[in-house]
Amino acid sequence: MDSRTVSHIIPSGGNYRLAAEKAVSEALAKSNLPMENAVPVVATGYGANSIPSAHIVTDISCHAKGTSHLLPSARTAIDIGDMFTRVIRLDSEGRATSFLSSGICAGGSGRVLQVIAHVLRVRLEDIGELSLKSQNRVNFHTSCAVFAETETVSRVAEGTLKEDVLAGLHRALAAQIQSLVERLGVERDCALVGGGAKDIGLVKSLEEVMGLKLLVHEEPQIVAALGAALIAREKADRS
């Protein structure tokens, strides 16, 4: 990002159109720009089709474009999102050349972090730092989000510390992501993007199981949105 780049993050609440309108409105307010300046519009991800007059671009392409812009040396991007984890190979021009996505189970995505944070009554933004305090990491026996929730409840009832549960969760999720990376093949440098990249505990676990240092931007959650904006700018320049 540069000094002209502004963003606004807002939960969709299931109403993608309203969330998009609010995000655009807030971003424009931060830029001191009127609404008529917000053209063209590129939408990506879940709910993209509900955004009026928007050009739809796949989130794979947007992640690749945003990653390349923020972290030019990256040739692999691991996107840990709410519903899926994706591993994307990209070229020097920010184009996705291949990718793999996790299955439909939330146990392989950032959703499981939300589920377990709720069970433990810990704020999602706090679980990373808390997990780093672990001295006796739990070994999870399942990769399913539903069973992980049940196992967490049992562990807490046994008196297991929250930080040990979270450290175990991070290691289990990291192992699943590593398996996905191995299937596609990693090319360095490797970047971590998406909301899951804001979890320092997960980042550390991934680096341990992968045996390499990951590139993480200061605001990894907006990488796809930035990629969409860059694609929109390219379209405007061509027209």
Spell out the key features of this protein.
6 strands; Nucleotidyltransferase, domain 5; 239 residues; alpha/beta; four-stranded mixed β-sheet; globular; two-stranded parallel ribbon
Explain this structure:
The chain has 8 helices and 6 strands, in the order αββαβββααααβαα. It is an alpha/beta fold and 239 residues long. The chain folds into 2 domains: 16-71 and 222-238, Nucleotidyltransferase, domain 5 (2-Layer Sandwich), CATH 3.30.420.40; 85-216, Nucleotidyltransferase, domain 5, CATH 3.30.420. The strands form 2 sheets. The chain has a 4-stranded mixed β-sheet. A two-stranded parallel sheet has the order 1-2. A hairpin with a 5-residue loop joins β4 (85-90) and β5 (96-101).
Can you lay out the helices and strands and say which pair or pack?
Blueprint: H1 16-31, E1 42-43, E2 55-56, H2 59-70, E3 76-80, E4 85-90, E5 96-101, H3 111-120, H4 127-131, H5 145-157, H6 162-184, E6 190-193, H7 200-210, H8 223-238
Parallel strand pairs: 1-2, 3-6
Antiparallel strand pairs: 3-4, 4-5
Helix pairs in contact: 2-8, 3-5, 3-6, 6-7
Brief overview:
The chain has helices at residues 16-31, 59-70, 111-120, 127-131, 145-157, 162-184, 200-210, 223-238, and strands spanning 42-43, 55-56, 76-80, 85-90, 96-101, 190-193. It has 239 residues and is of the alpha/beta class. It is globular.
